[in-house]
Amino acid sequence: MRRLSKLTLILALAGAMPAGAQVADLRSTTQFRVCADPANAPMSVRDGSGFENRLAQAFGEWLGLPVTYTWFPSGMGFIAKTLREGKCDVVMGYAQGDELVQNTNHYYTSVYGIVTRKDSDLAGIDHLSDPALKDHPIGVVAGTPPATVMAQAGLAKDMRGVDLFVDRRVEDPVGELIAGVKDGTLHAAVVWGPLAGPRVKDDPDLQFTPLLKETAGPKMFYRITMGVRLPEQEWKRELNSLIRRHQDEINAILRDAGVPLVDDYGKELVQ
């Protein structure tokens, strides 16, 4: 019986090998093929100006491969129509823990924060439970973690929400929030750091304050990875090795773009 069981196991593994080989064959060995949204500024942009485009270019150089793109609007169906169909091999900027992909090791951690005018009475606010926020119109992306924290803090009536899942080729909800702060129709906006930081980095009127002091509700910081197909362990390990060896260069690209970087526990800014 033992011999039969061992033989059965060997045959089962052998039978699984062709399927595994087919999965591995999806990955290109001649191109670094990236799945991306063509209009998700400041992250990915069709003209290559986003910071995720710059990161993709760096990974392509480290791999010795040219970078090519499969463009598809982010949201429902993005992974199914790109990565899973074998049209590309990696998704840049994917939140750790999503079950639709296999995550690499994270290559940065960022945080939600508050965009205000530098001359505003709210410029010193650094946590959402601050009573000074009450009775001020505050922009937030609906369905994001800070929207929950704001509601818990009694700010529901002050929230001015925009949609999370939109076609960014025709709508720019975060851009609208930041423009509202700049022209005064909003007194603050609570936005994901990688979306807000680069937009206000060189703006003389606006500032971004990371939410590093929140203790209640959903966390405000998240680790960001690259996503690959679920069975592709070797590919994931290759990317993990590049992340480990080039972390300082990755950080430099992100800091230059204005992305706020925090430690893995969301406690302090990484310089």
UniProtKB/TrEMBL annotation:
Gene3D superfamilies: Periplasmic binding protein-like II (3.40.190.10)
SMART domains listed in its UniProt record: PBPb
Highest taxon above the source species: Bacteria
Sorted UniProt keywords: Signal
Signal peptide: 1-21
Keyword Signal among UniProt keywords: yes
Pfam families, sorted: SBP_bac_3
Solute-binding protein family 3/N-terminal domain residues: 31-257
InterPro entries the record matches: Quinoprotein_dehydrogenase (IPR022448), Solute-binding_3/MltF_N (IPR001638)
Protein's name according to its UniProt entry: Substrate-binding domain-containing protein
Organism: Paracoccus benzoatiresistens
Lineage, uppermost ranks: Bacteria, Pseudomonadati, Pseudomonadota, Alphaproteobacteria, Rhodobacterales
